[in-house]
Design brief:
11% helix, 32% strand, Immunoglobulin-like, 7-stranded antiparallel β-sheet, 5-stranded antiparallel β-sheet
Length: 575
């Protein structure tokens, strides 16, 4: 099985789908499974399915593969003007879902990937990690029984949702257990009994969209393998973009097939507004300028001369002399939005703290700054720390202000991440990164090192679950030491260590942790250690794979240790 980014033009596979083919016929395909030693194509059947923004190709061999032999997958991309290889429906070049396996191939080379053959679904490489929900993060603008896309003849607007199992390699597979569904708000979205909809009850559920504006999370659970997505109901006859009526997709800056932008870097945010305004209609919003990272503006200077500029967009409400601008800027120093704002050279106002889609933000008059991350889902490291800025001109028309306020209210980030649980992991990890940066700055400025020679359970050591974290270490370092966002949340079921060692995780001789996030257990704590080598070390756990954070965790002192059950990121200050 292969997952490709983008929607595949199945004609470019080169052979019929769903038909048993001989080895000789398979040799003409642009997707081949072959023996490594002989390079002979295997006889079998090719199947394809498009899911969300991905294309799935899988091969069903005529005969079982042998564990004693090595096999290869071969993907052939376009090689000349004739476009003879795999292409998207828009004649674009497809990327492998695991982009790194083909990143070093030029257009005229085949991508060859050897794969191991296993005999058991319990093997680690086959285990599912989470579920993805399709449709993902839709916005429904219609309720009732006469809505576009209604999938059942019963009263109300019904839609079918599908749970798709995903393994560590990003491959799609059906879960072993029947999926159990739940809506976080049945007043907005509730499960429905089908009348004539075709529903696979193992992996699908019919939901009814209520006529109430709001947001609900749909969650799916298949024997402990989970996934969720946000569903928004926004009753509106005239949404922007108008395509929302058909596809439920907000305006977005992504590399997905329904993207409204064309230039890199794609910063993966979305927004929308409703033009309904009592007896009148708000003007349409036109994107007049899109500046990507490689663009040069109309003026004498490269627009990238703006420090850290990744993307710039300007929107004009039709018939009005106003403009709404959006900028995305690098936050290379991993500062909180307040720290970033304080360090800018522009004239400061009196900003107030707000939250946008779960990320910390500042509102300074007609401008809003959001500290959010972007996981490009490309070759690791794939995560970037950004500042998203939206602003409107002074003395704007009332209609323009209405549009601006709606865009802000409906602003979403990480929209290329299908699972809201995964989005929440990234939000918590961003807080951890900001905390680590804060502690780094303190350690860099502190001399001599804080040795913690007394006042803690263990000499030279403290953890955020210990009294000495606040009573001793905070006082010695001169700051209020932060705690892990899960540990700080009273609504979370925090598992730092064995139940009989709660809440300090002190076992009488040392600190005891139960495991990292990767194994399903939570070591939700921070730790500080002074070593005999005159080093001060700050350690924590990230929920996302630490190698994805390589763009952010850079510079002297940072490291990403592997194989430790208690932490996977640390900063070391050598004195």
């Amino acid at each position: 099985e292969v997952i490709l980014k983008g929607k595949l033009d199945t004609e470019t596979i080169g052979v019929p789908l769903g038909t048993a083919l001989t080895s000789e016929e398979m040799a003409n395909s642009n997707f081949i499974v072959r023996e490594k030693e002989t390079t002979d194509a295997l006889a079998g059947t090719i199947m394809s399915e498009i899911f969300y923004s991905k294309s799935q190709l899988w091969f069903i061999p005529e005969n079982a593969l042998l564990t004693s032999k090595a096999y290869e997958i071969v993907l052939k991309g376009y090689i000349d003007e004739a476009n003879t290889g795999l292409m998207s429906i828009t004649n674009g070049v497809l990327q492998s879902g695991e982009a790194s396996i083909c990143a070093d191939k030029s257009n005229n080379q085949r991508c060859v990937k050897e794969f191991p053959t296993v005999a058991s679904g319990s093997i680690e490489q086959c285990k599912l990690t989470h579920l993805e929900i399709n449709p993902n993060a839709p916005v429904y603008t219609c309720a009732g029984n006469a809505c576009n896309g209604d999938q059942d003849s019963a009263n109300e607007h019904q839609r079918i949702f599908t749970a798709v199992g995903i393994n560590k390699a990003g491959q799609i597979a059906d879960p072993d257990n029947v999926v159990v569904w739940q809506s976080s708000d049945i007043g907005i979205l509730s499960s429905a009994t089908k009348t004539d909809a075709e529903v696979n009850e193992d992996i699908q559920q019919l939901f009814a969209i209520k006529g109430v504006n709001g947001s609900a999370n749909i969650s799916a659970n298949a024997g402990g393998i989970t996934g969720s997505t946000e569903v928004r109901v926004f009753i509106c006859e005239n949404p922007w973009p108008a395509s929302m009526i058909e596809n439920g997709k907000a305006w977005n800056d992504t590399n997905l097939t329904y993207s409204n932008t064309t230039k890199d870097i794609r910063t993966n945010f979305s927004m929308f507004y409703c033009k309904d305004n009592g007896q009148s209609i708000l003007p349409n919003l036109d994107m007049k300028v899109e500046v990507g990272i490689d663009d040069v503006g109309d003026g004498p200077n490269d627009l990238r001369s703006v420090q850290g500029l990744l993307k710039e967009l300007f929107f004009i409400p039709e018939g009005l002399d106003d403009a709404i601008g959006i900028r995305v800027l690098q936050n290379a120093k991993n500062q909180s939005v307040q720290e970033w704002y304080n360090n800018q050279e522009f004239t400061k106002g009196s900003p107030k703290k707000i939250s946008i889609h779960g990320f910390d933000a500042l509102q300074d008059g007609r401008t809003i700054y959001v500290s959010a991350i972007n996981d490009t889902k490309a070759i690791v490291p794939s995560i970037y720390n950004n500042i998203y800025l939206i602003s409107i001109n002074d003395n704007a028309n009332e209609d323009s202000i209405n549009i601006y306020n709606q865009l802000v209210e409906n602003w979403r980030f990480l929209v290329n991440i299908e699972d809201t649980d995964e989005q929440n992991k990234l939000r918590r990890d961003l807080k951890r990164i900001e905390d680590a940066n804060t502690v780094k700055q303190v350690l860099d400025a502190k001399y001599p090192a804080v040795k913690l020679e007394s006042g803690s359970f263990k000499k030279g050591f403290s953890a955020s679950t210990w009294p000495s974290w606040q009573a001793g270490l905070s006082a010695d370092l001169g700051i209020q030491m932060p705690k892990d966002p899960v540990q700080s949340d009273p609504d979370k079921n925090v598992i730092n260590c064995a139940d009989n060692l709660q809440p300090t995780c002190w076992n009488g001789t040392d600190f005891s942790c139960i495991g990292n996030f990767a194994d399903g257990r939570k070591s939700t704590f921070y730790r500080y250690e002074y070593t005999t080598e005159n080093q001060a070390i700050f350690r924590m756990n990230l929920e996302y794979s630490n190698e994805n954070w390589g763009n952010i965790i850079q510079g002297d002192g940072w490291s990403l240790p592997d194989g430790n059950s208690c932490y996977n990121i640390q900063y070391t200050k050598q004195y």
